[in-house]
Design brief:
Shape: globular
Number of strands: 5
Strand content: 25-35%
Largest sheet: 5 strands, mixed
Helix content: 40-55%
Order of helices and strands: HHEEHEEHHE
Strand order of the largest sheet: 1-2-3-4-5
Structural class: alpha+beta
């Protein structure tokens, strides 16, 4: 009797401790919730797509020009957190940053396995992430 109870508790513990993953629709809901909070950045849109062998998680935001760096870091942080709990195995992240002025948008790209070393696992610092993972270009 005691052994059955112990086995039941072990099975219950394992099933409750499994990592929760979310489908694309749920990820979009969570993404929108992140940007509902008072931010200086506004979510303009998102897009999930396949490019060659990569599954891409892309968001477009509007930011103030003087807040570009913080906006970019926050956007990549959100993508990394959400891709870490997504059922879809995203491999690339893209952040397109628009400005309220008439400046051209800036496109920032990062391979997610590399980015997670900074945003999730904390095995890299920001400068290593910028050097090893980040690519920035004007549209």
């Amino acid at each position: 009797m005691k052994i059955n109870r112990t086995i039941f508790l072990i099975i219950l513990h394992i099933s409750l401790c499994e990592a929760k993953t979310f489908g694309d629709k749920q990820i979009v809901v969570l993404l929108n919730q992140y940007f509902e909070k008072p931010h200086s950045n506004q979510l303009l849109g998102h897009h999930f797509f396949i490019d060659n062998n990569d599954t891409v998680f892309q968001i477009e935001i509007e930011a103030k020009t003087d807040n570009f760096n913080n906006a970019m870091i926050e956007a990549f942080l959100i993508i990394n957190k959400l891709s870490n709990i997504a059922k879809t195995n995203f491999t690339q992240s893209i952040v397109i940053i628009h400005f309220k002025t008439n400046n051209f948008p800036i496109i920032a790209k990062s391979e997610l396995n590399c980015s997670k070393k900074f945003f999730i696992y904390k095995t890299q610092d920001e400068s290593q992430w910028r050097k090893n993972c980040l690519s920035i270009q004007k549209k």
